[in-house]
């Protein structure tokens, strides 16, 4: 009984060796190195696990051939190619010869048949695109091992044949066949999922670019159409000076809207900081409050502030203003019937937290997940570029955005930014490392 338990433990250890090998290969190696280096790594890793499998055999003495060495050999050969198959054969036979024992010639004959079978199957396997066909070819290669075992033992080692031996060989062969085909199936499924994920990422990027182009085109074309129309009207000879002035002002306003849209797009496309300096958040938030207060009054929204002092960050004031104004403006627009908007500033450990809380309509979980995505907006009009730009600016400043919301109760929009000491001067030495490359 103890011998059977020991055999099972060693068998599971062999399975573990093989699993670790292919997990490491798929996770960290495949597709990340050149073909020549791939063959080298495949040879080294397969060879290592072949040696481990040979070292920890399930049976002993005359039955020592019962181990899992054929699995890393076969899969290493199928995925590595013919040269890898030859290298692995040499490694296996050399190590087997080093171990000695009467079963060396059995191992030589069996693995030589596997090498020959693999030599012809490898090109078919690597050119196959169907998973089932690859599994079928793997089974075909493994059947060469079984046939070689039967032939060699029947001709030269007939004294080994008994009920126990035949039962063990049959059971072990079935387990090996199941293991090797399972590994091939899992590898191919993993490859397919990786390819599918990459294709989905490409399609998502193309979809984003398409939507971005359509949105920018729409937002820019409308004011340009307005401008074109009023410029055409200026050709009318009977226009009064006042009409001309009105037409010019309307055209300029439309061009300003188009310029604003393009600026938002460029900020999102290239949100790098340029004129970095130390900013006093207390003063910056008071500036934002004064700037947005008339807009809040127009919408019957009361703004309250709770600001701690002596909290400084490193950043660009114009980008910070753009970011904060977008957040505050969105909060005001979420309260169509009026309400209260609270702007808070406080220090949390090494971060400054700016929180804008409104009493508006709120958002559900699905809307929260999509917040900051291109072209997503909860407003009836708008492109969503403002929120998208806000996320880009905060990310460039190495900050984080946390949003909490409840339908009918309002939204809390918190921005965490790393604190800079007031004693630091905005020199290139102190602040240059804060610049991030364009996204």
Automatic annotation (TrEMBL):
Sequence intervals crossing the membrane: 12-28, 40-59, 71-98, 104-123, 135-157, 163-187
Keyword Repeat belongs to the record: no
EC code: 2.7.13.3
Alphabetized UniProt keyword annotations: ATP-binding, Cell membrane, Kinase, Membrane, Nucleotide-binding, Phosphoprotein, Transferase, Transmembrane, Transmembrane helix, Two-component regulatory system
GO molecular function: ATP binding; phosphorelay sensor kinase activity
Record carries keyword rRNA-binding: no
Cellular compartment(s): Cell membrane
Protein name: histidine kinase
Species for this entry: Domibacillus aminovorans
């Amino acid at each position: 009984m103890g011998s059977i338990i020991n055999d099972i433990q060693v068998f599971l250890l062999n399975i573990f060796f093989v699993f670790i090998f292919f997990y490491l290969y798929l996770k960290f190696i495949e597709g990340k190195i050149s073909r020549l280096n791939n063959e080298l790594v495949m040879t080294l890793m397969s060879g290592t696990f072949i040696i481990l499998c040979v070292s920890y055999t399930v049976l002993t003495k005359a039955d020592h051939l019962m181990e899992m060495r054929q699995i890393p050999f076969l899969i290493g050969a199928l995925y590595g190619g013919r040269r890898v198959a030859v290298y692995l054969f040499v490694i296996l036979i050399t190590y087997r010869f080093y171990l000695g024992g009467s079963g060396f010639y059995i191992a030589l004959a069996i693995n030589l048949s596997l090498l020959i079978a693999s030599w012809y199957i490898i090109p078919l396997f690597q050119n196959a695109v169907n998973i089932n066909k690859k599994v079928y070819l793997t089974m075909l290669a493994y059947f060469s091992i079984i046939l070689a075992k039967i032939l060699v033992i029947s001709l030269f080692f007939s004294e080994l044949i008994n009920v126990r031996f035949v039962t063990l060989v049959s059971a072990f062969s079935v387990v090996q066949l199941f293991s090797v085909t399972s590994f091939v199936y899992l590898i191919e499924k993993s490859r397919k999922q990786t390819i599918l994920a990459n294709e989905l990422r490409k399609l998502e990027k193309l979809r984003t670019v398409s939507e971005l182009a359509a949105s920018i085109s729409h937002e820019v074309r409308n004011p340009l159409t307005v401008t074109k129309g009023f410029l055409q009207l200026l050709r009318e000879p009977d226009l009064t000076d006042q009409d001309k002035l009105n037409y010019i002002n309307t055209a300029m306003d439309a061009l300003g809207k188009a310029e604003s849209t393009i600026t938002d797009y460029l900020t999102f496309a290239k949100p790098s900081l340029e004129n970095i300096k130390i900013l006093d958040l207390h003063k910056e938030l008071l500036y934002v409050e004064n700037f947005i207060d008339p807009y809040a009054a127009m919408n019957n929204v009361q703004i309250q502030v709770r600001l701690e002092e002596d909290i400084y960050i490193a950043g660009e004031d114009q980008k910070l203003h753009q970011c904060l104004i977008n957040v505050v403006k969105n909060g005001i627009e979420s309260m169509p019937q009026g309400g209260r908007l609270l702007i808070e500033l406080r220090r949390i450990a090494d971060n400054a937290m700016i929180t804008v809380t409104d009493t508006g309509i709120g958002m559900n979980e699905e809307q929260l997940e999509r917040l900051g995505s291109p072209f997503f907006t909860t407003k009836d009009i708008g492109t969503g570029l403002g929120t998208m730009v806000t996320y880009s600016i905060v990310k460039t400043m190495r900050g984080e955005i946390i949003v909490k919301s409840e339908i009918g109760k309002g939204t809390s929009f918190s921005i965490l930014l790393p604190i800079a000491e007031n004693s630091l001067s905005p020199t290139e030495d102190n602040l240059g490392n804060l610049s991030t490359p364009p996204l």
